[in-house]
């Protein structure tokens, strides 16, 4: 009985040993690459074969030197050679080069100097740039008497990018209250005239009379254009507004033949003014007094002065 049991066991052991001697480990012939790009989303080709994957992703390749090509719309195809190690995963990052694009810039008003990425281009609006690097660019428009306007625009590869006309904001000056006295019965320290651009009050017979735009006249107790007085020459025109708040955002109408050359010293609405230099102001009488024996009549005015010539915005 013992022999019958031992012989099969020995036979099985021998077969197991023989089987183990025949097993060998497989040789690794492939490796992997984790491929990223700037920007992402580029199609990945391995030795000109489309992997149907886009960056960032992992691809498999035969060990050795392989060509990795990345392709993305708007960017130049980029090919790099990479050494792939069997059984290992390498990492590569490729920065893609965008095709250039164009940029069209316009402004209202025109004539603003164009700065691009911190450097003056020497061109003024309107202007079209060609061959710009695709991607984001910082644009600044500079024009005298207007606020510098800065914005970021994205140039599209192989395309002409046009931006909506940029409306420039004028530089405003706010003055007042400034007191003006009537022209009769006053002293040198009680000026009647006003320079709208500087906010200074001047006597209408002083050495600064040629700067005066409007003055407070005893004749009818009107605020008049300086040119109405024989000593002065500057013309200013008046248009009564419909509001009382200087900061209500209402723009001036364009000066035409309906504009007057004076206004009442009791006007409660703001008044639009158009002066000799072509500038608009928005003025309001905020206080008044005097007009009794020994005390000349006076008014106090506040106003917004638009420094941009022939610009009606407020």
Question: Brief overview, please?
Answer:
This protein has 314 residues and is mainly β. The chain is built from 1 helix and 26 strands.
Describe this structure in words.
The chain has a five-stranded antiparallel beta sheet with strand order 17-26-25-24-22, with no helix packed on it. A five-stranded antiparallel beta sheet has the order 19-18-20-21-23, with no helix packed on it. A four-stranded antiparallel beta sheet has the order 3-2-5-6, with no helix packed on it. The model is unreliable at 1-20 (pLDDT under 50). It folds into three domains: 30-95, Carboxypeptidase-like, regulatory domain (Immunoglobulin-like, Sandwich), CATH 2.60.40; 101-167, Immunoglobulin-like (Sandwich); 172-306, no CATH class. It has 314 residues and is mainly β. The chain has one helix at residues 2-22, and strands at 30-38, 43-46, 49-54, 57-62, 64-71, 78-84, 89-95, 101-105, 107-108, 113-116, 119-124, 127-132, 135-142, 149-155, 160-162, 166-167, 172-181, 193-195, 200-202, 214-217, 222-225, 237-240, 262-264, 271-274, 280-289, 298-306. 7% of the residues lie in helices and 46% in strands.
């Amino acid at each position: 009985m013992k022999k019958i049991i031992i012989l099969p066991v020995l036979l099985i052991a021998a077969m197991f040993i023989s089987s183990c001697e025949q097993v060998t480990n497989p040789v690794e012939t492939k490796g992997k690459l984790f491929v990223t790009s700037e920007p992402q989303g580029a199609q990945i080709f391995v030795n000109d074969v489309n992997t149907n994957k886009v960056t960032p992703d992992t691809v498999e390749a035969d060990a050795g030197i392989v060509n990795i090509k990345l392709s993305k719309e708007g960017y130049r195809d980029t090919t790099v050679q990479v050494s792939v190690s069997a059984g290992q995963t390498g990492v590569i990052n490729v920065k893609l080069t965008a095709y250039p694009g164009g940029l069209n810039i316009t402004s209202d008003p025109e004539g603003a100097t164009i700065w691009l990425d911190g450097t003056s281009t020497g061109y003024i609006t309107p202007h079209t740039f060609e061959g710009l690097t695709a991607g984001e660019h910082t644009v600044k428009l500079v024009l005298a008497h207007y606020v510098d306007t800065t914005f970021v625009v994205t140039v599209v590869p192989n395309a002409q990018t046009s931006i909506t006309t940029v409306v420039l904001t004028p530089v405003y000056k706010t003055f007042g209250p400034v007191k003006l006295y009537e022209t009769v019965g006053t002293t040198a320290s009680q000026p009647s005239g006003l320079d709208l651009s500087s906010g200074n009050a001047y006597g209408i017979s002083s050495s600064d009379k040629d700067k005066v735009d409007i003055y407070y006249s005893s004749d009818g107790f009107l605020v008049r254009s300086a040119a109405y007085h024989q000593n002065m020459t500057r013309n200013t025109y008046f248009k009564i507004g419909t509001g009382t708040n200087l900061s209500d955002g209402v723009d001036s109408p364009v000066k035409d033949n309906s504009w007057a050359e004076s206004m009442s010293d009791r006007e409660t609405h703001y008044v639009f003014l158009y002066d000799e230099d072509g500038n608009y102001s928005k003025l309001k009488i905020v206080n008044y007094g005097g007009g009794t024996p020994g005390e000349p009549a006076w008014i106090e005015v506040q106003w917004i002065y638009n420094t941009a010539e022939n610009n009606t915005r407020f």
